[in-house]
Amino acid sequence: MKHWILAGVALLALSGAASAADIAYESPAPVAPAAPAGFDWNGFYAGVHGGYGWGGGTKDADFLDSLSGGLFGVQAGYNYQADPWLVGFETDIAYSGLSDTAGSAALDLNWIGSTTGRIGFTYDKWLFYGKGGIAYGDIEAKQAGLGSDSQWAIGWTAGAGVEYGFTKNLTGRLEYDYVDLGKKTIFEGTPAQSEAGVTTNAVKAGLNYKF
Question: Which residues form the signal peptide (predicted)?
């Protein structure tokens, strides 16, 4: 009888130990992976851009009314991000190959630049933005027998673009801009005096380094 009692006690002890082992080694519940951190757009940046522009140039006549050519320049700016929104400012300046010729006359846009505010929406490594502000450029008219007359013009610009973060410091962008530089008087005081102005559309691709 004593042996049966001892055997029962031993069996109960073994059952308790097995249950405790099951509790101790129970598999933990799966943990959901952490969401990836969004791209940090904050801070200063600088970069380069290139593209193609086309538009109108007026010279009080039906000629010299269309300009086109390449663009290459630099830009710098600052972004402040408050997820998912972004605000900032940017200044850019570019060499312009936009020009038109008609016989012995020509109209060139030698340089073009802008200072703009930006507002955008961020999604992970993407930035979708609009921009607007002041634009400036150097309009040069040429006429055989009179030489050339260069005028610095100021107007306005508006545009939109998309930017992507390749690394934490390098981003790339594609942008469209419209620029209206108004009109300037050229060859003032001569028989060729007239009003010249430039409006342009430009598509630009660029790279930025974020500091």
Answer: 1-20
> Residue type for 82, please?
A
Whole-angstrom distance, CA of residue 195 vs CA of residue 192? 10
Q: Where are the domains of the chain?
A: 44-210
64 CB-near residues (< 8 Å, 6+ apart): 57, 58, 100, 101, 102, 105, 106, 107, 196
Q: What is the pLDDT of residue 8?
A: 47
Mean local confidence (pLDDT), 172-186: 93
Residue whose structure tokens are 């129970």: 26
Instruction: Classify 17 as helix, strand or coil.
Output: helix
Please give the CATH number for the structural domain made up of 44-210: 2.40.160.20
What amino acid is encoded at 140 in this protein? E
- Write out pLDDT tens, residues 84-121: 999 999 999 999 999 988 888 888 999 999 999 999 99
* Start-to-end C-alpha separation, the chain: 86
Cα distances (angstroms) measured from residue 190 to each of 39, 61, 145, 152, 194: 58, 16, 11, 19, 9
Torsion sign (Cα): 95, 101, 104, 109: negative
Q: What per-residue confidence (pLDDT) applies to 103?
A: 81
Q: What is the DSSP string of 88-99?
A: EEEEEEEEEEEE
